[in-house]
Specification:
Low-confidence stretches: 279-290
Mean pLDDT: 79
Number of domains: 2
Number of helices: 3
Order of helices and strands: EEEEEEEEHEEHEHEEEEEEEEEEEEE
Shape: elongated
Number of strands: 24
Radius of gyration: 21 Å
Length: about 290
């Protein structure tokens, strides 16, 4: 598995974890040149449970996505390895999977995958995660440019547009820097729009989108700098496509061609599934599943 967001304003949040489901499997997280961590999933017999409820039990393991000086938060590389041969025993389930997903505040992932996924090499993809109680999602942090606030303020592309907005430096691993904007204390709203920050409990709330632009697609709010349609977003990286053929309508981030689940001034949560498959006889396949 190799997921590279380099060259985009998006990067993986530290709340994500590399997850593996299967038996006698190891997943290794790397920066491309050295191993950063990993975990192993084992099971004693096929009578474990009818589904994988969470990673406190067998059949599943998780390795946190690390954000430090050794890592590039825009890059995730992982390898899924079959350990059954090393264990000198027959593998109980023929299929295994590894993927990235957001963890909950309890440091767990809210999911429940039926074990027939591990008996059928196409079931998980064909099922489109429909059997999961909460399909896996990925949280991405986003920021502007490669300059800190002091330099960005002198640029014509400075994004903090409201006079009640404040610039916040963003520092990430591997020397990546940028900035985001927020409203000053006592104000709330959209700091990326002139007049976007207003006092708490203001009667007439301002729009979160540019004038004459959609501020919502289905159940998801679309705040500027994101936008739907020409002249509604700050730059192409923030363009949103609203698919109105579904009920409710669904927003997609055009740059990554992935569905948006949640969006605000500091994060974007997406269905961004890069899945590593590990089948018997060490045949490995990889596929994008949006």
């Amino acid at each position: 598995m190799n997921v590279n967001l380099s060259g985009t304003p998006y990067m993986f949040s530290y709340v994500n974890a590399l997850t593996a489901i299967g038996c006698d499997d190891m997943v290794l997280l790397s920066n491309g040149s050295s191993i950063l961590g990993g975990c192993s999933a084992f099971c004693a017999d096929k009578n474990v449970t009818s589904s994988v409820e969470n990673c406190r039990f067998n059949v599943c393991c998780q390795q946190d996505i690390m954000i430090d000086s050794r890592t590039d938060p825009s890059l995730v590389k992982a390898e899924l390895i079959d350990l059954s041969g090393k264990a000198l025993r027959k593998k109980l389930f023929p299929c295994s999977y590894a993927f990235i997903q957001e963890k909950t505040f309890l440091n767990e992932s809210e999911f429940s995958y039926p074990l027939y996924y591990l008996d059928n090499s196409t079931a998980l993809v064909n099922d489109n995660w429909a059997s999961a109680t909460r399909p896996p999602i990925v949280r991405l942090d986003w920021f502007f440019g490669s300059e800190n606030c002091s330099r960005a303020k002198n640029s014509t592309t400075y994004a903090c547009r409201d006079d009640k907005s404040v610039c916040v430096d963003s520092y990430y691993g591997n020397g990546i820097t940028g900035y985001t904007c927020s409203c000053v204390q006592g104000y709330e709203g959209n700091p990326y729009l002139p007049g976007g920050c207003q006092k708490f409990n203001t009667i007439h709330a301002s729009s979160i989108a540019k004038v004459e632009c959609l501020d919502q697609c289905g159940e998801v709010l679309i705040p500027f700098p994101f936008g739907v349609g020409p002249n509604c977003y700050l730059e192409p990286s923030f363009e949103i496509v609203c698919n109105t053929t579904t009920n409710p309508a669904k927003p997609f981030l055009r740059l990554l061609n992935t569905e948006i689940v949640e969006l605000n001034s500091s994060k974007i949560v997406v269905n961004y599934m890069n899945i590593a498959f590990n089948l018997l006889q060490y045949v490995r396949l990889s596929s994008w599943n949006y």
